[in-house]
Specification:
about 350 residues; alpha/beta; Nucleotidyltransferase, domain 5; Dna Ligase, domain 1; 3 domains; six-stranded mixed beta sheet; 10 helices; 14 strands; binds adenosine-5'-triphosphate; binds magnesium ion
């Protein structure tokens, strides 16, 4: 998408690297006929107190996964990306290209020369004479910065895209039986979360919100009056019996829920369809209660997305570690999948 470089050839092995605010996740995939194999994966927490904490975590995650190839697919942080849905009258590709230049000037608050962009046409309601366009733009600085960090870690990034787009690809490949359903994908990270509404290969709605697991940790820290590290530990070891703690963190889950309501409402009124079910991913999907809380309040089926549900795994992959980290590997898996699409 960004960076202008197209993947040179469909190689047999692909590496997806997800540099988050909290942790670096890396996945190596290979394709054998129609099946994908998870060769290895790595997960490394970022030490935010260290200047080179991100580079170090990239190296650690790659070392755990035994990555030897330098070419990796990566994404840029949502903070650097502008996503807009536009409605335009129906027109041909050339007209659209020209029209988009105007729209970019209008919607992107940076100088044109500083911006890289891409767009895709979404399906409109059958009764409409308009087209809906998804515009994704980023400041060149952000893209270049990400490339610089990856190079410092000794890698050679090939594709730079955004999390929300690959999230959909991971889902689609693993859940083909849901192709006719409208599905809400919630990827809940540390600082940000992504809400995506998809049906088959089409993404109808995509939004990043600045809310995630960090907000839960900070609330625990404040309310129990403990340090951040301890709050993080408590959060990650909560059980369904810890009702008191659930009461403490409920407001954050409530804020998240409100954003989900707003997004679903918008989609339902704009496209005249209802979101059928929901899949959650990201590190915060490991929080006990999250699926139950969402299920109860959204009145829909809510499941944790498994990014490698239909994959085989190399014998060296630890099943227990994979089970633990799998909700966090959704973006890295989608990035690797870019090579095979
Ligand atoms: N067992 C657990 N229970 C609850 N939360 C958890 C658990 N394990 C990890 N988390 C939380 O998941 C978050 C990290 O998720 P993830 O790895 O998806 O984030 P990230 O991609 O690094 O961040 P971002 O997407 O915001 O840049 C952290 O807030 C962490 O505390
Ligand atoms: Mg993330």
């Amino acid at each position: 998408m960004f960076g202008g470089k197209k993947i040179a050839k469909k190689s047999d092995v692909a590496i997806g690297l997800d540099v988050g605010n909290f942790a670096v996740k890396v996945v190596q995939l290979s394709q054998k006929g129609d099946t994908f194999n998870l060769d290895s994966f790595g997960y490394a927490k970022i030490n935010i107190e260290k200047l080179d904490g991100v580079v170090e975590a990239i190296k650690n995650a790659c070392a755990e996964a035994g990555i030897t190839q330098k070419k990796v697919n990566a994404s840029i942080t949502p903070e650097g990306v502008i996503v807009r849905y536009l409605t335009l009258p129906e027109m041909n590709t050339d007209e659209l290209k020209k029209a988009m230049e105007f729209e970019i000037e209008r919607y992107v608050p940076f100088e044109r020369k500083d911006v890289v962009n891409d767009y895709m046409i979404l399906k409109e309601r059958p009764d409409s004479k308009n087209m809906k366009i998804l515009l994704v733009a980023a400041k060149k600085d952000f893209v270049e910065n990400r490339i610089k960090i990856l190079r410092e870690a000794g890698l050679d990034p090939e594709v730079i895209t955004i999390d929300a787009i690959v999230l959909k690809d991971t889902f689609q490949l693993n859940y083909p039986e849901k192709n006719n359903k409208v599905v809400g994908l919630l990827n809940i990270g540390a600082k940000s979360s992504n809400i995506n509404i998809v049906k088959g290969p089409t993404s109808y709605f995509m939004r990043d919100i600045q809310l995630g697991g960090d907000n839960i940790t900070h609330l625990l820290k404040e309310k129990i009056d403990i340090g951040l590290e301890e709050a993080e530990k408590i959060k990650c070891s909560l059980t369904l019996e810890d009702k008191e703690k659930f009461k403490i963190i409920e407001p954050v889950l409530g804020n998240l829920l409100n954003e989900v309501y707003l997004s679903f409402d918008y989609y339902e009124s704009e496209f005249g369809l209802v979101v059928d079910e929901v899949f959650v991913s990201g590190g915060t999907a490991r929080l006990k209660w999250l699926t139950d809380f969402l299920k109860e309040n959204l009145n829909r089926e809510v499941s944790v997305l498994s990014p490698v549900k239909r994959f085989t795994a190399a014998p060296a992959v630890s099943q227990s570690r994979l089970e633990l980290f799998s909700p966090s590997l959704v973006v890295a898996t989608g990035l690797a999948l870019e090579n095979f699409s």
